Inverse folding.
């Protein structure tokens, strides 16, 4: 069955960095566009970044553009999110999901990894 397993979350001070990973199995990862979605406490999930199946095109929400970098390694069936210059408002549960911005709501999601940015 489809599995998406996120890792790499944790607590970091403002201005710090984290790298999230998402290991995929149960489907042909290299043929799927992929996204990162986050859900802050008390809010609905929101798409923040996407990458096409080959990794040649990347997309970002304005809230993370210039600070976060999405990438993928199709040989390892793994999606990444490098997060720099983290802010307290980046605190959320981060999910990887199949699909792009318009279709991620109908795709497969992982269980999420918690990122907390705090002093």
């Amino acid at each position: 069955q489809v599995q998406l397993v996120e890792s790499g979350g944790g607590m970091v001070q403002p201005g710090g960095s984290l790298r999230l990973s998402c290991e995929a199995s149960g489907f042909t990862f290299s043929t799927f566009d992929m996204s990162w979605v986050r859900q802050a406490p008390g809010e609905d999930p929101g798409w923040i970044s996407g990458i096409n199946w080959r990794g040649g095109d990347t997309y970002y929400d304005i809230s993370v553009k210039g600070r976060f970098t999405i990438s993928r390694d199709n040989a390892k069936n793994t999606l990444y999110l490098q997060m720099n210059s983290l802010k307290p408002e980046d605190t959320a549960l981060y999910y990887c999901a199949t699909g792009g911005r318009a279709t991620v709501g109908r795709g497969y999601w992982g269980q999420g990894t918690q990122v907390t940015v705090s002093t």
Notes: Strands lie at 3-7, 10-12, 18-25, 34-39, 46-51, 58-60, 68-73, 78-83, 92-98, 113-117. The chain is about 0% helix and 45% strand. The first strand starts at residue 3 and ends at 7. Residues 13 and 35 are 25 Å apart (CA to CA).
